[in-house]
Amino acid sequence: MPNYDKENAYLNMDLLRFSTAGSVDDGKSTLIGRLLYDSKSIFEDQMEAIEQSSKNKGDDYTNLALLTDGLSAEREQGITIDVAYRYFSTPKRKFIIADTPGHIQYTRNMVTGASTANLAIILVDARTGVIEQTCRHSFISSLLGIEHIVLCVNKMDLVDYSEEAFDKVVKQYKEFSSKLNVPDVHYIPISALYGDNVVDRSEKMNWYEGSTLLYTLENVEINSDYNHVDSRFPVQWVVRPQSEKHPDYRGYGGRVEGGVFKPGDEIIALPSGFTSKIKNIHNFEEEIEEAFQPMSVSITLEDDIDISRGDMICKPDNQPNVGQDIDLMVCWLNKEKLKLGGKYSIKHTTKDARCIVKEVKYKVNINTLHRVEDDQEIGLNDIGRIRIRTTEPLFYDSYSKNRSTGSLIIIDEFSNNTVGAGMII
Questions:
Q1: What are phi and psi of 137, to 5 degrees?
Q2: Same-domain check for residues 215 and 182
Q3: How far apart, in Å, are the Cα atoms of 397 and each of 118, 292, 392, 413, 422?
Q4: 124 and 108 share a domain?
Q5: Which residue of 62, 93, 239, 275 could cross-link 251, Cys pair, CB 3.0 to 4.6 Å?
Q6: Number of domains comprising the chain
Q7: Which backbone phi and psi does 364 adopt, to 5 degrees?
């Protein structure tokens, strides 16, 4: 990886994207508000506005949840409806937070917020323990390829900061999560309302010897989450400025979705199969020596070959799967059920195509993670395995290998609404 000057240290600081999930009233928005407040990431005028809003609502304390509940309907009901994004940083790392809703009818919003996350914070009420929404959000996080989960056992102040209450929840979650494909799980007892173990260690839980939430977020290792082996570059557009400065420039713009590209590398363009070598790589106006995930760059080649949007540049000895019959796990996001034999539009990396649903193999019981093969109707918030046939070949990897080239979205052709999120098996 390149070395950066201190002047560019902030711009190139490590970025962690994380989502929060949990049932209604488990304290997701309060936790994020506390995280921002205790890490001194709130401006004075923001804090004054929150204090005034809390007084107007009749609260006898400063309601930090109002920092993320921005919609009027959210503030009226005290719940999160849409995904709220917040940004903050510490000297060690930058963060993008996706505060996702807890209601089951907003599961699709949770999928949206978690789809780009490196880590998921799942909140559990210390009094109720693991419930259906805990299982649902954990399974979706696992399905979306999130490799790090932090289970925050919240509202410890309401169980007298009991170690036994915390251990009981941890035991419940370990029994469930053993069925998931999540390699890294942390357990932290917290009180979001009072800030225990969020940024500062709690003096009321001396029995807990682990890290605080912020320390965990600052130090979790995510570089290995990216695929730096399988080189994938879906072409987003052909760059032809035809300016006085660059009269003959022809580059291919897009985002690196895997591997590393360097000038001089041999490449193959799909679907044509033509080969060439990389002439140079530009990051805006600057010429760079290498490009890796998730950088957005423009690549020029030594040979003038026919490449257009939706094509993929990769290495000749390491190519993706190419096919039209695709098996995938789908999270259904629409009130109208998935139609067997139905025709839909799809978007995969930079490629647009159409498909027909050939087969519904099974649904997943969220609570037990068992396959349900005798009920093949997939409706809103259901998760199941299906097979589609596309109108033209896709260049794809399995989702477990590459989250970018292994995912697609399903779109209703008439309403243009996104109705499904698919993870290729």
A1: -70, -35
A2: yes
A3: 19, 17, 16, 25, 13
A4: yes
A5: 239
A6: 3
A7: -110, 130
Cβ density class 161-177: b for 16+ within 10 Å, e for less: beeebbebbbeebeebb
356 domain-assigned: yes
Range of the domain at 410: 321-424
For the chain, give the number of residues.
425
Query: According to the model, what pLDDT value does residue 100 have?
Result: 73
- Beta strand pairing call for 184-189 and 232-239: unpaired
Mean pLDDT for all residues in the chain: 85
**What pLDDT shows up at residue 6?**
47
What's the pLDDT score for residue 4?
41
CA distances from 79 to 32, 72, 136, 158, 191 (A): 14, 10, 18, 20, 18
Residue at token pair 């954990």: 138
- State the average pLDDT over residues 255-278: 96
**71-to-68, 258, 300 alpha-carbon distances in Å:** 9, 37, 45
Residue 338, domain member (yes or no): yes
**Does some domain include residue 1?**
no
Cβ contacts of 246 within 8 Å, gap of 6 or more: none
- What's the rounded Cα separation, in Å, for the pair 31 and 26? 9
Residues 172 and 242 in one domain: no
* Together in a domain, 78 and 129: yes
Task: Check whether residue 221 and residue 254 sit in a common domain.
Answer: no
Query: Can you give the pLDDT at residue 259?
Result: 94
Could you tell me the pTM of the whole model? Answer: 0.79
68 phi and psi angles, rounded to 5 deg: -110, -25
Residue with tokens 């605080």: 212
- Of the CA atoms within 13 Å of residue 119, those in its CB half-sphere come to 27
Q: Of 298, 314, 330, which marks where a domain is finished? A: 314
Residues 178 and 109 in one domain: yes
Find the angle CA(348)-CA(352)-CA(355) to the nearest 5 degrees.
Answer: 85
| 280 and 340 belong to one structural domain | no
Q: Nearest to residue 331, comparing CAs of 17, 110, 97, 102?
A: 110
